[in-house]
Amino acid sequence: MKLEYDIIIVGAGLVGLTTALACAHSGASVALLDRREMEPGQDSRVSALSTTSLNLFKNLGVEIEDGLQPIKDMLVTEGVPDSPWRLHFESGRSSLGAIIENPPLKAALIERVYETESIQIFAPADIQNFENNAASAIVDMGEAKLEARLLIAADGRESGLRKKSGITVQRFDYDAASLVTTISHELPHDGLAWQRIIKGGAIAVLPLTGNRSQIVWSGPRQSVEAAASIPETDFIALLFEKMDGYLGNMHCIAERQSYPLRLQVADRLSKGRIALAGDAAHIIHPLAGQGLNLGLRDAAALAEGVKVSRQTGQDIGVASLLEYEMWRDVDIRSLGALTHGIHRISGAGLAPIGHARRFGLAMINRSSMVKSQLKTRAAGVAKDLPELLR
Ligand SMILES: Cc1cc2nc3c(=O)[nH]c(=O)nc-3n(C[C@H](O)[C@H](O)[C@H](O)COP(=O)(O)OP(=O)(O)OC[C@H]3O[C@@H](n4cnc5c(N)ncnc54)[C@H](O)[C@@H]3O)c2cc1C
What are the residue boundaries of the structural domains of the chain, listed by start? Predict the structure, then answer.
């Protein structure tokens, strides 16, 4: 049996689901495949969503309002929250975005995908083979073959489609990891997202709805992975000490999970009729909370290309990819370089670098122009944004 669509998307993670909705919004018929069931899953992570990502979900009718905690203040310090070595952003007129836990975000996306008639779901699906031909792309699932003009690989960091297509990557392993968990705490967070630079890494305390916060503890892989497996009372005591008692008494309300960190960027974003999106295309250090935001901008850019190709009667598997490659390349590479640089500086324990870092934080904090540019970068705002991000 052969089924035909405009687009096939492999991978129904946060990026694949959003890409399916965005392309369907552009009028395309979409087949969405995942090797696992369509479920929110056991992800302890949260996503700090930029203004443009929030616009995207609103434009696609994804209902996440109830789970969103707006970021009212953002603080990076070397030391306690009132340390003089600090960089402080207030939300003011421009928003600093909002934070949501990944499972409710994924649940809302899945619900919206099921409501969308032009998206057909195949999950769990077992891809046996695929072809990237001149006239179309074909995915072989054994009993059924799917054919489309465009094949989007949103199949995550180890993307099989990327590897089998022969698209190479530039990869740098940090020998570092991030431990994530959620805590409930005695004192209110007042919407403050606080990142404290500690020896060899950083601890981010990100506000969630109610008296709850996400902890993202990044540092040398061995010590972070060890902290993930110590008894919970010892972990809480360690955390309390690293946070100087900020937020008062606390306890863990989610599993501790650790993620090895790397910088990885594909050498190209498309080949023939295949386009890469999300972690399949790029992985950056999570310290700026931008990885998913980048993937969501991939989704919006692909959908914009599909819309324009359809309006002008061009082949969506060819015309849309030219724009896609050009528009996404600068955004991905510049953010990759920026997060890499911040990681190198924030992780350095050497006294001269530590001194320069403290001085740098204080200097930037005094410049409203530099701060405003950093805010704009984090919000994902740029000239000529795809319509869905506005
Ligand atoms: C500790 C940490 C904190 C982070 N915090 C933030 C943050 O605050 N803000 C932010 O913007 N980003 C953040 N990120 C980054 C963000 O989590 C990722 O970029 C994002 O989840 C990637 O989504 P994805 O859909 O591309 O990939 P994935 O979530 O990996 O999804 C890939 C999907 O493809 C499927 N798949 C794989 N292979 C196949 C196959 N052969 N056939 C079918 N299906 C397949 C998988 O089952 C999966 O469902 C963080 C990352 C980390 C590690």
Answer: 2-170+262-381
For 135-149, letters b (16+ CB in 10 Å) and e give ebbbbebeeebbbbb
365 C-alpha vs ligand 1 centroid, how far in Å? 33
pLDDT tens digits for range 67-104: 999 999 999 888 666 666 667 777 766 689 999 999 99
pTM of the predicted model as reported, rounded to 2 decimal places: 0.93
CB atoms within 10 A of CB 186: 10
Ligand 1 near 103 CB (within 6 A): no
Under 8 Å between Cβ of 130 and 164 = yes
Instruction: Domain 2-170+262-381: give its CATH code.
Output: 3.50.50.60
Mutating to test ligand 1, I would choose from 9, 42, 47, 218 the residue with most ligand atoms within 8 A of its C-beta, which is 47
From CA 205, how far away is CA 216, in angstroms rounded? Answer: 7
The structure tokens listed for 220 are 């040398």
Pick the atom of ligand 1 nearest to 155's CA.
34
Tokens 């009372």 belong to which residue?
Answer: 233
Task: Answer for the pair 299, 386: CB distance below 8 angstroms, yes or no.
Answer: no
